[in-house]
Structures are given as C-alpha cells and as structure tokens.
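Lab meeting, action items carried over

1. Structure of the two-component assembly. Owner: GW. Status: complete.
Input record:
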Amino acid sequence: MKNKITAGKILSFVRDNSVPLMFVLICAVCIPISGFSWGYLINEIVTRMGRNIFLILALLIPIMSGMGLNFGMTLGAMAGEIALILVSDWQIWGIPGVVLAMIISIPISVLLGAFCGKILNMAKGREMITSYIISFFMNGIYQLIVLYMMGSIIPIKHFSIKLPRGYGIRNTVSLLNMRQCLDNLLAVRVSGVKIPVLTFLIIGVLCLFIVWFRKTKLGQDMRAVGQDMNVARDAGINVERTRIISIVMSTVLAGFGMVIYLQNMGNIATYSSHSQIGMFCIAALLVGGASVDKASIGNVFLGVILFHTMFIVAPKAGAEITGDSMIGEYFRVFVSYAVITVALIMYETKKRKHKSQNAQQLQLAQEEADKHE
Amino acid sequence: MNKRRLLFRVGAVAILLAIAACMMVIGRGHTVYVDNKTLEYNGESYKAPYRVNVYVKGEQIARLAARERGMTTNIGQRFRMTLGVIEEKGGDEKMVDVSLKLPYSMDGIILNVPGYLANLPQEAWLSEFVSTPTEAEMQDEEIPSEEEDLLAGEF
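Predicted assembly:
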C-alpha cells in the first residue's frame, strides 16, 4: 500500500515536472558531448542569468492576472530599443545612459501596454494568440519609426547610427560606451566565474517587488481576476482596468529588461533584437516548470539555468554528433518552439481533465441526491 | 481621480524627469583628444614640448612626442588630467594638473597642450573635433529579411 502511494507520488511528480525533467535529460546528454569545461559553462550561465532573468520576470504579472504568457512583452522590448537608440545618439554613456534609457522607455511602454491591454480585453480567453499577433503588428510600426522617421522626423545626429541615405537606423547600433556597465560595477570573481553583483541585486529587488506586490490590494485583485473574472467582477473589482494594469506593468518591466539585456550584449541588432525575445523568454519560463496559469520566481531561475545550458551546449553537441553546427542551431530553435507547444498542449489537456473530473463529481452528487429522493 | 492620487502621479513624473535631466548632465560622454602640436595664435607660435605624458585617474593614457595626438573618454562635464611635460630631451618631467569644464554640446574635443600651457584664452586651445564618416560608414546596408530571423542568434 505504502509502495503504491510512493509510486503514485513519483508518477505525479514526473507528470507535473515533465518539461524541466526532459531538459535535465537533454542537458545531461549534451554537456559531455559538447566537451565544454564546467568553468566555462558556469561562467556562461551566470552571465546569461544576469542578462535574461529581468526580462523573464516581466512575464509573471500577466500570468497572475490570468492573461497567460504575454507574447506582447516584445512591445516593451521595442520601447527599450528605441530608448537606447536615442540615448546612444545623445551620447549618454555608462550607468547614467542605462538609467536614462529605462526612464525614456517608460512612457513608450505604458502607451504600448495600454493599447495591448485594451485589445486583449476585447479578446478574453484568447490573450496569447492575440498578444502574439499584436507584437507582429507593432513590429511593423517599430520598423516604420526606426527605418523612416528616425533621422527625418526624430532628429538623429551621428553617422555611426544613421543610415548613409540620411534617415533610418543602421542594422547594428553600438553600445560600446555602456557595454556591461551594470555587470562590471561591483562584479566579483569567484574561482574564475564573474558574478555581476549589481545586476543580481537589481533582479533581487524586482523579485522582492513581485513578492510584495502579490500581497497588495492590486495584487490580490489580479489574482482574483486570474482565478475567475466573473466572481472578481461580482466582488466589485474593475476587471478590465486590472487586466490593463497588469499588461502595462509587464510591458514596462520588459522595457527595463531589454535595456539590461542590451547593455550586456553591447550592441543593438536594430531590426531583430526584439523579434524573438518574447518567444525565448516564454520558452525559458516554461522550461522552468511554469504553466499558462501558474508561474513563480523559482520557475524563472530554474528555467533560465536549464534553457540556457541547452542553448549553450546544443550547437556544439549538434556539431559533434552530425558534423554540422547548423543542426545544433536549428535544434535549439526547434526545442524552443516545441517546449511552448508541449506546455500549451499539457495545459489544455490538464484543463479538460479537470473539467471532466468536475463534471463526473457533479454527476455523482446528482445521482446521490436522486437516490435520497 | 481624487486630488491625492493626481498629486502622487504628478510627483512621480516630476521625480522621473528630474532623474532623467540629472542623467543627461552627469552621463554626457565626450571623447577628448590631447594634441601636442605647435600652435599658431595671433601671429605667435607656441612650440610643442619634447614629450608630454598624459595621466587620467592615475593611469597613463598617452605618451606624446611633438606633433602627436592622444585620446581619452570622459563621462560628465568635469575633466581632470595631469600632464607630465618634458620640455627638452633629457629634461625633468614637470607635472601640471589640468581641470576644465567640457562644453556639453561637443562630442569630440581637441585640447592643444602648448596653448593651454601658455595660458592662452580657451578658444585658442579648445576646439571641436568633427568626425567625417569613413568609407565603410558611407556604404549602404541591407535590412535583414524575415527568413534570417529563423535562427536564434544570441540570446
């Protein structure tokens, strides 16, 4: 009997954590094949944690309010990029440049977030696909601004940023003067591994903010909206407003996250930096064991570690196995899409199973009541 | 919207604007070019010393013979450096502390050492460095297509 219970517990643990476990397996196979040293791997993972965690944390708030995975975080990433292009042209360097870019990104993110939130309120129950399409739509507007309005309507002074024709921004904008300024300040080296203490402190502050925010009135409202919109509305919560606020917060945080991400990279790929950021952040979160309706800070950290280990080792492992590094490159993109698909299928299956269980219970209760009558 | 909430919002925006303005000033980056070149000013010639060592924040950033140029970067308007001036070959190094306010509007600034050492007015030894685009910078670029986004790139 005891064995049966233990086996059941193990089975349910495996079922609940199938995605992280699958990634642990992939990493366990790929790491030895790739031939990377542990020192190199840890160094890379720590760097990528500092670079990406803030962006992924931005996804937690919409999940809390029941809006699923916010593919619309790309909008915040675009706001961060526009802010960085402007700051780069104004020649504001170092940490002041990063802070200024974050401040400039706020109004752009708020506008885009409010727009996205309003549309998502019209598409309740289909938030993820809607936000995904909004990000494509906004990418068009972003390109219009960056390719045609910057330099002609929005003043851009420097040759190194502007296209030779006199308007539009180059494919790559250098952020050399603010490269890793956050990461290098207060950085410590522990057995050859560089730990960006200030970046981790900023991430820590955001984690504390999220923990605190969950306990506030607005946070509780968001959780109530996430659990059941109709009940929340009956309880006097302004559901639409709460949902818009959650998307705005997520977009603003994504804007900040993008600034942190790009200062680490040291350059902006003007037309592509933001394009896949939403997908990769969501994939990393799902790899950490989150689902469409439940995600925690722990999922973010675990997801970044597992997903990025796979990201680092896959090309090399692919090259070792097949002799072609491109296979590994495609493999990691394939895995990113696959993990999102698997997570969505599992979520839907679980939801249906839960629904049918509820229906069965209701039927049993009805039969009991009929018997008594 | 009640008055308290409005005040709070206006206050938050004002604080953000103040921080942004502060960052604009303290974060303004300049590239400073230090020239050890003979200067002609008002019909007089100010000869370049034999060698000038340039120290910024205790670190030697350039060792300039006559007619040479060194470069450093500076964040903010206040620029400090120490010049180690050797007038003639085999002579002693005379240390001169330089502290000046860089013009906000200039990205690149050229400082002429002989002019500065001769206590000439600022316009004589400080000028703007205007960069001309390189050939590579003048070449047109192709904007990446959608297909190129299929690969993950760096994340």
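2. GW to write a short summary for the group page. Key points so far: The mean pLDDT of chain A is 90. The first strand of chain A starts at residue 172 and ends at 174.
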